[in-house]
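Open question from group meeting: does this chain pack into something compact, or does most of it stay loose? Before anyone orders reagents, we agreed to write out a predicted structure and look at it together. Recording both the input and the output here so the notebook holds the full record.
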Amino acid sequence: MTTILNHKKKISEHLEELNDAIRIGIYQRPATIGFHTTACAIDLLEIYLHKKELIDIGKVVKHDWFKRPKEGQKIDSLIERKLPANFQEKDKIYNLFYIIEGKREV
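Structure tokens returned:
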């Protein structure tokens, strides 16, 4: 089970890895930057959702749930199906995740 404290420790580790990758050079470490950016953002979102009591402590949000829905898609996005929570500025936050996920492998 991942507690808020564990999320905070993981965020610190992600930030350390991001700083190291930037120091080495963004062109030498694009995969590291993509991975840790996504992982850090997910941990931040999970902390927020835990604090708002919108997900249980054991719930894990996966980065691949943030694949941008296709235009005209008739079913809810994958994230909406996996995590049907309502919170302030959800659409704005999810759009940022769609951008991050879309650039993760670039």
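Observations to bring back to the group:
DSSP finds four helices and no strands in the chain.
Residues 4-103 form one domain.
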